[in-house]
Amino acid sequence: MQIITPPDRLTTLGDNRAMSTPAKTQRLNTDGQPIGPDVPGWTPRARPARVRIEGRTCAVEPLDAARHATDLYAANSADPGGMWTYLFYGPFTSEDEYTGWVARSAQNDDPLFFAIIDKANQKAVGVASLMRIDPANGVIEVGHLAFSPALQRTPAATEAIYLLINAAFELGYRRCEWKCDALNAPSRSAAVRYGFVYEGTFRQAVIYKGRSRDTAWFSIIDSEWPALQDVFVQWLHPSNFDERGRQRTSLSELTMRTRGLSQA
Q1: What is the pLDDT at residue 35?
Q2: Average pLDDT over residues 1-16
Q3: Any domain includes 60
Q4: Would you say residue 263 has pLDDT above 80?
Q5: Domain containing 62: what range?
Q6: I need a surface site. Which of 45, 66, 205, 213 has the fewest CB within 10 A?
């Protein structure tokens, strides 16, 4: 078995540059100590509802075993290996086993699970959730991403993430988080592509599947979302894709522009 030591910091261009944030004006209390800004009129946010959210290429709807398990199991069965490596569960050895997991997960309020529906064929092709929901502080996480091969690297995959992030900020949440195993390079790259900022790594944060996990943390905050929302809308627009469905401008390029960065 090959052992790879994770880097102390992200090594891709976008990851490192995303650490550069403008300095904020510091204010002091009467004792001369630096304190954070006031949040006037703050009240706890509403919890996300079990509702279907419509997109152009996909929809996300509350996970339901009767509606989704068979389609999801079939779609996941096309995975050549590795889909479940960084999730706390799976792989599943039978449809019955997977259906049982879906039925149990669908009952949760946190994580609140959604199925991702491909609008081209109305089949469920992936799962995602809103989780670690903290209405008092306005913090929420997008997680439990299980994208079948039919969903991976498609506009629908990106749109599903957009729909969930946007739902959180529409409810007035101040912060949306993304966390993953620090060794999960595709997830780390995806977080940066979506506009999340890398914040650091919690060492030995979790034990799962009998192994230790360092957890990489990323976030988008509410003041960043309007610009990023425009980026998602621009990228997802049909005009951004040629007749073969190939993107004309990458999402990474657009999200970097919102931070005054360049891929060059």
Answers
A1: 95
A2: 41
A3: yes
A4: no
A5: 46-258
A6: 66
Q: What are 61's two structure tokens? A: 């709807």
Q: Residue 199 falls within a domain, yes or no?
A: yes
The half-sphere exposure of 71 on its side-chain side, counting CA atoms within 13 A, is 20
Q: Give the chain's domain count.
A: 1
Residue owning tokens 């360049």 = 262
With CA atoms as reference, report the closest residue to 53 among 175, 168, 135: 168
For 170-195, the pLDDT digits (tens) are 999 999 999 999 999 999 999 999 99
pTM for the model stands at 0.89
Mean pLDDT of 27-55: 96
Contact 117, 59 (CB under 8 A): yes
234 phi, psi to nearest 5 deg = -65, -45
Has residue 31 been placed in a domain? no
CATH code at 175?
A: 3.40.630.30
Whether the Cβ atoms of residue 65 and residue 57 lie closer than 8 Å to each other: no
What is the per-residue pLDDT for 17? 45
Contact between residue 218 and residue 239 where contact means Cβ atoms under 8 Å apart: no
3-state class (DSSP) for residue 167: helix
Classify residue 6: in a domain, yes or no: no
- The SS3 call for residue 263 is coil
Q: Is 192 exposed, middle or buried (0-12, 13-18, 19+ CB in 10 A)?
A: buried
Residue 135: is the preceding peptide bond cis (ω within 30°)?
A: no
